[in-house]
Protein backbone atom coordinates (compact mmCIF):
# COMPACT_ATOMS: atom_id res chain seq x y z
CA UNK A 1 0.00 0.00 0.00
CA UNK A 2 1.52 3.32 -1.02
CA UNK A 3 1.43 6.49 1.07
CA UNK A 4 -1.40 8.16 -0.86
CA UNK A 5 -3.67 5.14 -0.52
CA UNK A 6 -2.85 4.93 3.20
CA UNK A 7 -3.56 8.63 3.70
CA UNK A 8 -6.86 8.30 1.83
CA UNK A 9 -7.89 5.32 3.95
CA UNK A 10 -7.24 7.29 7.16
CA UNK A 11 -10.21 9.54 6.40
CA UNK A 12 -13.18 7.85 8.07
CA UNK A 13 -16.17 7.16 5.86
CA UNK A 14 -19.74 7.59 7.04
CA UNK A 15 -20.16 3.83 7.06
CA UNK A 16 -17.21 3.48 9.46
CA UNK A 17 -18.74 6.14 11.71
CA UNK A 18 -22.08 4.29 11.62
CA UNK A 19 -20.35 1.01 12.55
CA UNK A 20 -18.50 2.72 15.43
CA UNK A 21 -21.57 4.46 16.84
CA UNK A 22 -23.70 1.35 16.41
CA UNK A 23 -21.18 -0.60 18.46
CA UNK A 24 -20.94 2.11 21.13
CA UNK A 25 -24.73 2.35 21.25
CA UNK A 26 -24.97 -1.41 21.64
CA UNK A 27 -22.44 -1.34 24.50
CA UNK A 28 -24.34 1.43 26.30
CA UNK A 29 -27.68 -0.34 25.88
CA UNK A 30 -26.37 -3.78 26.80
CA UNK A 31 -24.50 -2.43 29.81
CA UNK A 32 -27.64 -0.79 31.14
CA UNK A 33 -30.22 -3.46 30.26
CA UNK A 34 -28.60 -6.88 30.52
CA UNK A 35 -28.67 -8.57 33.92
CA UNK A 36 -25.52 -9.04 35.89
CA UNK A 37 -24.20 -9.22 39.41
CA UNK A 38 -23.68 -5.81 41.05
CA UNK A 39 -20.13 -5.60 42.34
CA UNK A 40 -18.88 -2.78 44.57
CA UNK A 41 -15.85 -0.91 43.26
CA UNK A 42 -12.90 0.45 45.19
CA UNK A 43 -13.49 2.70 48.17
CA UNK A 44 -13.21 6.34 47.10
CA UNK A 45 -11.49 8.97 49.28
CA UNK A 46 -14.89 10.16 50.59
CA UNK A 47 -15.67 6.55 51.71
CA UNK A 48 -18.30 6.03 49.02
CA UNK A 49 -18.25 3.27 46.43
CA UNK A 50 -19.36 3.02 42.85
CA UNK A 51 -21.16 -0.19 41.91
CA UNK A 52 -20.59 -1.98 38.63
CA UNK A 53 -22.81 -4.45 36.82
CA UNK A 54 -20.77 -7.48 35.71
CA UNK A 55 -22.50 -8.41 32.47
CA UNK A 56 -19.58 -8.36 30.05
CA UNK A 57 -19.73 -12.04 29.10
CA UNK A 58 -23.48 -11.90 28.46
CA UNK A 59 -22.95 -8.72 26.45
CA UNK A 60 -20.25 -10.38 24.33
CA UNK A 61 -22.34 -13.48 23.69
CA UNK A 62 -25.36 -11.39 22.71
CA UNK A 63 -23.17 -9.30 20.38
CA UNK A 64 -21.91 -12.47 18.70
CA UNK A 65 -25.46 -13.80 18.31
CA UNK A 66 -26.73 -10.49 16.92
CA UNK A 67 -23.75 -10.25 14.55
CA UNK A 68 -24.32 -13.80 13.30
CA UNK A 69 -28.01 -13.01 12.84
CA UNK A 70 -27.12 -9.84 10.92
CA UNK A 71 -24.79 -11.78 8.62
CA UNK A 72 -27.35 -14.56 8.13
CA UNK A 73 -30.11 -12.07 7.28
CA UNK A 74 -27.80 -10.17 4.91
CA UNK A 75 -27.90 -6.94 6.93
CA UNK A 76 -24.12 -6.80 7.32
CA UNK A 77 -20.97 -8.30 5.89
CA UNK A 78 -19.00 -10.73 8.05
CA UNK A 79 -15.84 -8.81 7.10
CA UNK A 80 -17.14 -5.32 7.95
CA UNK A 81 -14.41 -4.74 10.55
CA UNK A 82 -11.60 -5.98 8.32
CA UNK A 83 -12.90 -4.04 5.31
CA UNK A 84 -12.97 -0.76 7.21
CA UNK A 85 -10.16 -1.35 9.72
CA UNK A 86 -8.08 1.78 9.13
CA UNK A 87 -11.20 3.95 8.80
CA UNK A 88 -12.54 2.56 12.08
CA UNK A 89 -9.19 3.19 13.73
CA UNK A 90 -9.14 6.84 12.67
CA UNK A 91 -12.84 7.35 13.51
CA UNK A 92 -12.24 5.88 16.97
CA UNK A 93 -9.20 8.12 17.49
CA UNK A 94 -11.09 11.25 16.43
CA UNK A 95 -14.05 10.32 18.63
CA UNK A 96 -11.82 9.64 21.64
CA UNK A 97 -10.01 12.99 21.29
CA UNK A 98 -13.36 14.82 21.11
CA UNK A 99 -14.64 12.96 24.19
CA UNK A 100 -11.48 13.68 26.20
CA UNK A 101 -11.72 17.40 25.42
CA UNK A 102 -15.40 17.40 26.45
CA UNK A 103 -14.52 15.61 29.69
CA UNK A 104 -11.63 18.02 30.31
CA UNK A 105 -13.93 21.01 29.82
CA UNK A 106 -16.71 19.57 31.99
CA UNK A 107 -14.14 18.70 34.66
CA UNK A 108 -12.89 22.28 34.73
CA UNK A 109 -16.44 23.55 35.19
CA UNK A 110 -17.45 20.93 37.78
CA UNK A 111 -18.45 22.19 41.23
CA UNK A 112 -19.22 18.76 42.71
CA UNK A 113 -17.56 17.90 45.99
CA UNK A 114 -17.81 14.09 45.81
CA UNK A 115 -14.45 12.50 45.11
CA UNK A 116 -15.46 10.86 41.83
CA UNK A 117 -16.68 14.17 40.36
CA UNK A 118 -14.33 16.61 42.11
CA UNK A 119 -12.25 18.61 39.62
CA UNK A 120 -8.54 17.86 39.72
CA UNK A 121 -7.05 21.05 38.31
CA UNK A 122 -3.29 21.37 38.58
CA UNK A 123 -2.77 24.20 36.08
CA UNK A 124 -0.77 21.93 33.77
CA UNK A 125 -2.89 21.36 30.65
CA UNK A 126 -1.36 17.99 29.75
CA UNK A 127 -1.67 16.62 33.28
CA UNK A 128 -5.22 17.92 33.69
CA UNK A 129 -6.26 16.60 30.29
CA UNK A 130 -4.71 13.18 30.97
CA UNK A 131 -6.11 12.75 34.48
How many H/I helical runs?
A: 6
The number of distinct β-strands equals 2
The run of helices and strands is: HHEEHHHH
State the secondary-structure class.
Answer: mainly alpha
Calculate the terminal CA-CA distance, rounded to whole Å. 37 Å
Spatial ordering of strands, largest sheet: 1-2
**Unreliable parts:** none
Task: Tell me what the structure shows.
This protein has 131 residues and is mostly helical. It has one domain. Helices cover 60% and strands 10% of the residues. It has six helices and two strands; from the N terminus they run ααββαααα. The chain has a two-stranded antiparallel ribbon with strand order 1-2. Strand 1 and strand 2 form a beta hairpin. Helix 2 packs across helix 5. 5% of the residues are buried. The model has no long low-confidence stretch (mean pLDDT 85). Keywords: Membrane, Transmembrane, Transmembrane helix. It is found in: Membrane. Its main location: membrane. One of its GO terms (molecular function) is Delta14-sterol reductase activity.
Highlighted features:
60% helix, 10% strand, mainly alpha, 131 residues, two-stranded antiparallel sheet
Could you outline the blueprint of secondary structure elements for this entry?
Blueprint: H1 3-9, H2 14-33, E1 37-43, E2 49-54, H3 56-72, H4 80-83, H5 85-108, H6 125-130
Antiparallel strand pairs: 1-2
Helix pairs in contact: 2-5
Amino acid sequence: MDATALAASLVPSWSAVVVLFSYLGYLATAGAVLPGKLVPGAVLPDSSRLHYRCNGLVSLLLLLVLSALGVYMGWMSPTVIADRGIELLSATFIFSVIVTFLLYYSGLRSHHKSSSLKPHVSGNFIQDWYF
